[in-house]
Design goal:
It is a single chain. The chain has 442 residues and is α/β, with parallel strands linked by helices. 36% of the residues lie in helices and 17% in strands. Strands 6-5-4-7-10-17-18 form a 7-stranded mixed β-sheet, with helices on both faces. Strand 17 and strand 18 form a beta hairpin. Helix 2 runs antiparallel to helix 6. It is globular and about 70 Å long. The two termini are 39 Å apart.
């Protein structure tokens, strides 16, 4: 059974705390938009699709706490404005993840439309919002399964059969948030996963021989999360450090038929440049040099046609301490056997660098489109034409590349918090108060 990163029923939202994986499987309640903001910012939830869903569903849960009197005290337009204010604040929690801004923009249209209906009241707006947010959850799982099938089929078509005529794909999966380098797994979505969805599809059809996945420094999502899911699903896999990728491709790429590198994405620009977990760019360069296919798995909501290229993508920078320190449970090593026992409930943070070390910690990098062989979506795999341009009309059925950049920029900034533009560093401090109602919280 696939791991559930998100558990939702109307009025209740729980997420799997990914900071406690792989040693503890703990679900935490998300009862307010403030809870969601903290969970996203602290990376208790990761992956662009999952982040968008947690943000959207946190509002769905939060509004259910309102009393009848509170709902009657505001007009439909006032209630819509309040929801939009919370959406803007939530987008601020993870600005690189385009799915979050995309979901917020779509939900804004829903509530504004509902508020402008004749005889609309706050309950009309709330019902419209709940239905739209819950539909996103259902669509996410279905879209991921389609991505898995399309990606698996594409890889098999680009894999030479062995002497017996059968095909056995061997993949290098980088995790991000997601690959993944962080592979976009079911932990990065509502379930099944994007990049890991491709892996699952290949595995279920007995077309997968082996997966190599990176640890994904500095946050180690690969070692902690991708590995946890692969082991959970019984998929044959081997962990390597990030710095081993080149040696792996050189020494095992041909002999073990490493077929492709598959990664997720946090944002894909109109020209195909892709922002993903830091280290993805390096893997793409290595894959190109060694003649290995490089595939990005992402739903269409991750493709941002209003961002012309990777140069326009805002890259989040995280604290230095994530690079110079490492955190995990305490391990007791048995004498002679060298077997290890995890001390349950224990957590230790240790320094792995000299005192006063300065560190640079961008959360993402941008892989140029020329290094990407295909982008797999729920509508199929997008490839480049003879001029090296991705043919988006296959999945969008319209040439959005001609849209004026100013329109897209206005759309992106509109969903950011008041007074914040993409170039301004985001404060880690919430401006809302735990004790205030959804209607009053800022």
């Amino acid at each position: 059974m696939t791991l559930q990163a998100i558990k939702y029923s109307r009025g209740k939202l729980e997420i799997l705390d990914q900071l406690r994986l792989p040693h503890e499987k703990v679900y935490i309640d998300i009862g307010t938009t403030q809870d969601a903001w903290i969970a996203i910012k602290s990376m208790q939830v990761r992956g662009a699709p999952a982040i968008a869903l947690v943000a959207a569903l946190s509002i769905a849960v939060d509004v259910m706490h309102l009393s009848g009197d509170e709902l009657q005290a505001v007009t439909a337009q006032q209630f819509a404005a309040t929801i939009n204010r919370h959406l803007r604040n939530l987008v601020n929690s993870r600005p690189t993840a385009v799915n979050l801004a995309d979901a917020a923009a779509k939900l804004k249209v829903v509530v504004d439309t509902a508020a402008n209906e004749s005889n609309a009241d706050s309950r009309t707006v709330m019902t419209a919002y709940l239905q739209a947010a819950e539909r996103m959850l259902i669509d996410d799982v279905q879209d991921n399964e389609r991505i898995g099938k399309h990606g698996a089929d594409w890889l098999l078509q680009h894999t030479a059969s062995n002497s017996s005529g059968s095909q056995a794909v061997q993949l290098f999966v980088t995790l991000t948030l997601s690959l993944l380098r962080d592979i976009s797994s079911s932990l990065a979505t509502a379930g099944y996963g994007t990049a890991l969805g491709v892996i699952r599809s290949l595995h279920s059809s007995k077309s997968l021989h082996h997966v190599y996945y990176t640890e994904t420094r500095p946050y180690n999502q690969g070692a902690r999360l991708t590995g946890f899911e692969l082991i959970h699903d019984g998929i044959p896999a081997t962990l390597v450090t990030d710095s081993m990728a080149a040696a792996l491709m050189k020494t095992k790429g041909h002999s073990e038929n490493i077929t492709g590198v598959i990664v997720g994405a946090d944002r894909v620009a109109a020209n195909g440049d892709t922002a993903n977990k830091i280290g993805t760019y390096a893997l793409a360069v290595l894959a190109k040099y060694h003649g290995i296919k490089f595939l990005v798995a992402a739903p269409r909501t991750t493709i941002d046609m209003t961002t012309k290229s990777g140069a326009d993508i805002v890259i989040e920078e995280r604290p230095e301490m994530e690079v110079v320190n490492i955190k995990g449970p305490v391990v007791q090593i048995k004498p002679f056997t060298r077997e290890k026992d995890i001390v349950q409930g224990s957590t230790a943070e240790i320094s792995i660098a000299a005192s006063n070390t300065c560190a640079w910690n961008p959360a993402f990098d941008v892989t140029p489109a020329e290094l990407i062989d295909g982008i797999v979506t729920e509508q199929g795999v997008v490839e480049k034409d003879g001029h090296g341009r991705f043919q988006w009309d296959k999945v969008f059925h319209v040439d959005l590349l001609d849209q004026a950049p100013a329109v897209g920029e206005a759309k992106r900034i509109d969903m950011l918090p008041d007074g914040i533009t993409p170039q301004v560093p985001v404060s880690d401090q919430l401006t809302s108060s735990e004790n205030k109602s959804f209607l009053d919280r800022r």
